[in-house]
Structure formats: structure tokens, C-alpha cells
Design brief:
- By secondary structure, the chain is mainly α.
- Helices cover 57% and strands 0% of the residues.
- The protein folds into 2 domains: 119 residues; 33 residues, no CATH class.
- It contains 9 helices and no strands.
- Helix 4 packs antiparallel against helix 5.
- The longest helix is centred in the first third of the chain and has 20 residues.
Length: 197
Amino acid sequence: MEDLAKPVALNHEMIETLDQIRAGAENALYGASPAQTEELFKKHLAPMVVGSGMPVLQVMHYQWFLRELARLWRTRQGRDLAFHLELCIRKWVALGLEPHTIQFLICEAHERLKAVGASTVNREPHTVSASPPTPEPRTQIPDIETAKDAKTAKTEPESTTKTQSHEESEHSLPRSLGPSIPDGTTPSTLSPDEEVR
């Protein structure tokens, strides 16, 4: 990991591209869907890697690099994007990719995606929430006693239903938990020797 701290010598085109990104160049992919972003990268940049004549294993590494670029372009912009592109260069050079090829691909991605423009990209709403989304409440399956009570409540007059719900609210535990919690009034089915264990 110490290789990530070592700066990589950037060529002139890469420095200009990073300066344009830092200055706030239009990022047409910011907020786009992952599938759409990867599709644009495959369409505009992957043919340069696949048709380069490199060994298949090396082509796969460059395709992974392009996938990471697509993720960065989709999730970051401005100075943050430029910073993470520099880190990405260091990472992939440390993993064995050629620095000039990586820089060329980043510059080409910037130029080609600038040409694509925001008109062809459908953006997803990019919202940041302070708290995680709350899950939908699950429906509770009524136990047998509750279901029987519901059937008898329909047939009994309204006055007894009110009395029943009043009795249920007096208990500290809901009725569905009552039978599963032992109380002191029920006789134990275990012998005294088994209860000790």
C-alpha cells in the first residue's frame, strides 16, 4: 500500500485534464445509473483496450480499470473527482498497469464523455439522507387464540368486545406473547431433577 503514497509522473495532457476537472468541467455522467455509465464506457473506451493486441489477462485488467473509472465519473465531480482519479492512477500503476496508457484512457474518457454531453444521460436523483431508510413494517401473523378471539368478537355484541380490548390493554405484554412466557401459575411438566439443570 505504500505505493499509493508515491506520486506518478503525469504527462502534460493528464495535467490539463485534471485542471479542467478541478475547475468544474461538466461531468455528464454525475448521478447517472451504473448500468448507463458502464454502457457508455464500453461503447466509447473499451474498443481501444480490446482491440489493442494485448494479452487477454492484461485486457481484463484494463477493463477493470475502466469499470472503476466509470464508477468515479458517476459518483464524483470537480476537485473530488480529480483527487480520486490521481489515486486511481497510483493504484493501477502499483498493480502493474502502464502509467502512460492509464493516463491516455483517462484523457480520452474526459474528452469523449464531454462530447457525449448531458443530453444523452438520464440522471438518477442524487440525494443524501442523514438517516437510513426505515424498513416497511411486517405484518404479524396472528396466533390461534387471537384468531379465535376475532371470530368470537364478530358474533358477540359490541359491549363484550370493548371489555375484551380493555382487559388486553391492562396486561403489560401483548396477548400474542402470553402463552410463550411461563408464569408461576402453570404446573411444570419437568421433574424436579430436570428443572435444576
